[in-house]
Amino acid sequence: MKILFVTLLALPMLMLAGCGQKTAKDAEKPGGQQAQLPDEFTSEKQMPSVLEESLSPEEKSAILKEIMPAGSESDSTPEEKFLQLKKDAEAGDPKAQTGLGVMYYTGEAISKDASGKILSNDPATAAAWFHRAAEQGYADAQFNLGLLYANGEGVPKDSVKAFGLFQKAAEQGNVDAQNNVGVMYYSGEGVPRDEAKAKEWFKKAAAQGNADAQANLDVMK
Q: According to the lineage, what is the superkingdom (predicted)?
């Protein structure tokens, strides 16, 4: 019997609005220390020297597009978009905080470690930004942070925290979170096993058209 669990980070399309509430808390590292949010950002015109030396101009251009896709000529530059997103995130906008977290997780926003080494992605910084938005009750951020706790990416693996975050997002109607809550109830991971509650959450997600949840219901039958 295979129950399907959503394991890929959601990448919500952002419609940036005005500044929201001030952020409630920064994310915490193990031991209670606050996670530091680095200000490092490498523009799409900057690339590690090892890549500059080894790639052709065409290959470098393709990689730069992956790092930060260019918009139309009338759009802001990628650097301007990042800086505006960061400004909104620091002002407390949960959508911007979530979007910034996604960028650090995927490597679109390039950060560096303490030694200056460029990181291909930065789940710890992503988790810190998701935490800020999740504290404001933003469902997409709760879902994303739950996935990081479920997988132990950027934060210590903690299925209890993952379940709690999924449940908060699920109660706001996040369909993937609803499926994941069902999975965790079914498996007894992070919460006592309860097939009835698992089926209840799978039904809620399936009613919104979630194929994984419908497949999970079919398996339970």
A: Bacteria
Distance of CA 193 to the CA centre of its chain: 27
Measured CA to CA in angstroms, residue 219 lies from 16, 29, 177, 184, 210 at distances of 40, 39, 19, 15, 15
- Tens of pLDDT, residues 192-214: 999 999 999 999 999 999 999 99
Whether the CA torsion 208, 197, 9, 31 is positive or negative: it is positive
Q: What class has domain 158-221?
A: mainly alpha
Distance in Å from the first CA to the final CA of the chain: 11
- pLDDT: is 120 or 52 the higher one? 120
Sign of CA dihedral 156, 157, 160, 163: positive
Contact yes or no for 179/202 (Cβ under 8 A): yes
pLDDT at 55 over 70: no
Question: What residue ranges of the chain are covered by domains with CATH 1.25.40.10?
Answer: 158-221
